[in-house]
């Protein structure tokens, strides 16, 4: 189980004390979003996620699981996968039916929507924890704990009544328990193993700098762009020599469509102070070779290019002029 050690390893980015990025657990979960627009129109969306990576979709028309990666089948047999598919199909149909049946009794007035998040969390000690939470119209409604349905405080008496209705059904509780406590951890272990090539890949970031125009206040916003890196943990800082610049601001890390990540890290400085600053990037794909880009170098490259172009023009124009003159003289 080497791959697990990798996943649960502290991704120790060398050379910095505050750059420890710890990934000590991983969760896999199903997300359900059901919209009830009116008495006759219901939409069920389903998907499955490994951390922040989507692994499965759900085709509600045909009632089939969409496997998004070659490794999305984990190590389950076709038979087991078909059983799961049937289970979800029956669940969606049954839930829709029951919600519509009980809508008036529980004052679920359309339009409303339900969200369910269910799955398991695996820890480095190889222990696992199952969870199932449901929300009504965006606020916590109930959860499944210790093999029974427990209302959320925000759910009020309505959530209590729904739990009272659900709790006597032992069969449903057994299925839910089995899914999140037994099937889920087994599926995740298989998934991590089957997908290790993808999940453990290392993609080096592309880094470039830009800036806002100088503001009236004489301030400049320096922007360090870090793009297309994988995995997600990364450390980026604006530096002056070895000194970290405390005004460094990090935006949210955003996903690219191919599963890699993009990040923007900015620093607000006065225009005179910008020279000599650098953006420093540490990432597991780089080993201990940080990427360091200096502000101002971009400018001098432009300057050099400009100078070269001017020199070329100065050289070429006389040559052309001379040639033209020669040929003119040649003809005459
Ligand atoms: C129900 O909602 C859907 C989607 O908003 C709409 O297309 C449909 O006309 C509605 N039906 C009724 C009976 O209101
Ligand atoms: C749920 O939210 C919708 C708006 O998003 C609102 O129209 C509807 O009345 C809410 N339903 C309940 C039962 O609170
Ligand atoms: C779960 O149930 C067991 C036995 O029924 C009980 O000992 C334990 O305290 C319960 N845990 C929670 C969090 O309710
Ligand atoms: C799949 O892999 C997991 C973890 O390696 C293992 O526990 C399980 O028995 C394997 N087979 C099935 C069918 O789940
Ligand atoms: C940068 O600093 C100046 C002056 O302190 C301030 O006016 C400006 O809003 C700041 N810009 C950003 C993007 O923080």
From TrEMBL:
This is CD1c molecule. Residues 1-19 form the signal peptide. The chain crosses the membrane at residues 292-322. One of its GO terms (molecular function) is lipopeptide binding. It comes from Chinchilla lanigera (Long-tailed chinchilla). Keywords: Adaptive immunity, Disulfide bond, Endosome, Glycoprotein, Immunity, Immunoglobulin domain, Membrane, Signal, Transmembrane, Transmembrane helix. Coiled coil: none annotated. PANTHER family: MHC CLASS I-RELATED, T-CELL SURFACE GLYCOPROTEIN CD1C. It is found in: Endomembrane system; Endosome. Gene3D superfamilies: Immunoglobulins, MHC class I-like antigen recognition-like. GO terms for cellular component: endoplasmic reticulum; endosome; external side of plasma membrane; extracellular space; Golgi apparatus. It comes from the Eukaryota. One of its GO terms (biological process) is T cell activation involved in immune response. It is a single-pass type I membrane protein. Residues 205-285 form the Ig-like domain. Its main location: membrane.
């Amino acid at each position: 189980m080497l791959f697990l050690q990798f996943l649960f390893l502290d991704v120790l980015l060398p050379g910095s004390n505050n750059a420890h990025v710890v990934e000590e657990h991983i969760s896999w979960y199903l997300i359900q979003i059901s919209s009830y627009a009116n008495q006759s129109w219901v939409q069920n969306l389903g998907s499955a996620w490994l951390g922040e990576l989507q692994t499965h979709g759900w085709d509600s028309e045909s009632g089939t699981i969409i496997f998004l990666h070659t490794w999305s089948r984990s190590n389950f047999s076709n038979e087991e996968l078909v059983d799961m598919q049937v289970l979800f199909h029956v669940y969606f149909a049954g839930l829709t039916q029951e919600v519509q049946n009980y809508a008036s009794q529980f004052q679920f007035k359309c339009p409303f929507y339900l969200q369910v998040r269910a799955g398991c969390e695996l820890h480095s000690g190889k222990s696992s924890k199952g969870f199932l939470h449901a929300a009504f119209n965006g606020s916590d409604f109930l959860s499944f704990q210790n093999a029974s349905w427990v209302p959320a405080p925000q759910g009020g008496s309505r959530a209590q009544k729904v739990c009272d209705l659900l709790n006597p059904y032992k069969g449903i509780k057994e299925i839910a328990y089995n899914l999140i406590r037994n099937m889920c951890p087994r599926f995740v272990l298989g998934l991590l193993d089957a997908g290790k090539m993808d999940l453990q890949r290392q993609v080096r970031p592309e880094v470039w700098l830009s800036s806002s125009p100088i503001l009236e206040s004489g301030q400049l916003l320096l922007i360090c762009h870090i793009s297309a890196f994988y995995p997600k943990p990364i450390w980026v800082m604006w530096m002056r020599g070895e000194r970290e610049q405390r005004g460094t601001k990090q935006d949210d890390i955003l996903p690219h469509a191919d599963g890699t990540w993009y990040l923007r890290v900015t620093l607000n400085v006065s225009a005179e102070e910008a020279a000599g600053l650098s953006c420093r990037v540490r990432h597991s794909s780089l080993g201990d070779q940080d990427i360091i880009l200096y502000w101002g170098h971009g400018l001098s490259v432009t300057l050099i290019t400009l100078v070269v172009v001017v020199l070329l023009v100065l050289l070429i124009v006389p040559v052309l002029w001379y040639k033209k003159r020669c040929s003119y003289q040649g003809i005459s």
